[in-house]
Every structure is written in C-alpha cells, then in structure tokens.
Amino acid sequence: ITTLFYSFFKSVVELKNDLSICGTLYSVDQYLNIKLTNISVTDLEKYPHMLSVKNCLIQGSVVAYMQLPADEIHKQLLQDAARKEPLPQKQ
C-alpha cells in the first residue's frame, strides 16, 4: 500500500454511521484509508466505548465527510505532490 501523503494537522472525520472522530491526521493511502492519532469522539455519550481508543485506521469506504482546517493546509505543497507522475506499474 502506497501512502499518498503524510500530514500533521487536526481534522474531523464523519463516518457513514454518524460517528464523528476528531484527531491528528497521520496519513492517507491510495484507497483513502485514513490514519488518525490522538483521537476523540464528538459524542461520547453515544459512543462511550471509544473513550479508550487513542489511534485508529478508518477504511475509506466508510467515510462520509472529512473536514480539514483551511489555514493549516499547505496548498503549494499539496499541488506539487499532486503533479508528480505515478511510478510505472510492474506487469
């Protein structure tokens, strides 16, 4: 699995089951799987079992929305990374 980018800023990931997780974005891979560290759940009364979880890997197919703070995104760095050509595939 290839990691598309690493980043280290706070984000909120809302899942399709209405669970919202706040945490530090660690990485995103080619399948849009998201690794978060130092997480917290916005509605602890509804999901008390998430209190003991500190890090998580979220499968890309269960993500409904992802909020990133606009002031912390390095737009030029992200655009440069998106322009890189993919490595040739082995056949």
UniProtKB/TrEMBL annotation:
Residues 7-68 form the Sm domain. Keywords: mRNA processing, mRNA splicing, Nucleus, Ribonucleoprotein, RNA-binding, Spliceosome. One of its GO terms (biological process) is mRNA splicing, via spliceosome. The keyword Cytoplasm does not apply. Its main location: nucleus. Gene3D superfamilies: 2.30.30.100. CDD domains: LSm2. InterPro entries: LSM_dom_sf, Sm_dom_euk/arc, U6_snRNA_Lsm2. The keyword RNA-binding applies. GO terms for molecular function: RNA binding. GO terms for cellular component: catalytic step 2 spliceosome; Lsm1-7-Pat1 complex; P-body; precatalytic spliceosome; U4/U6 x U5 tri-snRNP complex; U6 snRNP. It is found in: Nucleus. Belongs to the snRNP Sm proteins family. This is Sm domain-containing protein. It comes from Mandrillus leucophaeus (Drill). The lineage of its organism: Eukaryota, Metazoa, Chordata, Craniata, Vertebrata.
